[in-house]
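Input protein
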Amino acid sequence: MLKQFTGRLTSLFIGVAITGAAYSLPAQAAETDPEVFLRSLASEAITVLSDDRLDQAGRTDAFRQVLRRGFDIPAVSRFVLGRYWRQASSVEKTQFIQLFEDYMVTVYGRRLGQDSGKFLTISGQRMVGLNDAVVHSNIKRQNRPAVAVDWRLKQGKHGWRVVDIMAEGVSLALAQRSEFTSVIRASGGKVAGLLSKLRKKTQSLAFNRGALPKTNVVASAQ
């Protein structure tokens, strides 16, 4: 469950992280400009990926903080549950947000540093509304065609946050919602069935994961 979605999302995020090493960005600009914010987020990610002082637990915890700053986890959680969000109890909603975050952090923890050789070029941005923007980019891959990636960001009281990633025009959030919907339907329409699967999968990954590899980062970006 979630393997395809999280694998693609991790690769894209690592691509941004590799890009980030080339930038030093003013905090004020990162709060007001979505493109600058994405570059700023990348700088934070690269620090986590290349810090030799961090052990496995430390790097995972540090990456969790980067994820929380860069992605609107509660908003994405509501979207991917779709109509089942309204059916879920307050307890189930709280549990899902936490389990969704735990799962992503655990999967990223297993993959940090494995996706080198990807170089991202940001090609611009467009405002969709006053508080909604899309940042355009391309990820170049060794011996494979480049991938067009759009990052959808929304601005809230805490600044810009990523709410979706579109790879070659395909929304990963929509793909995730479709997968979650299938799991819930297979569980008799109960959100509890999805929570159980997420919990078991996360615990299994956390138990079996090895030490996090250090990324051999080569910065190349525009």
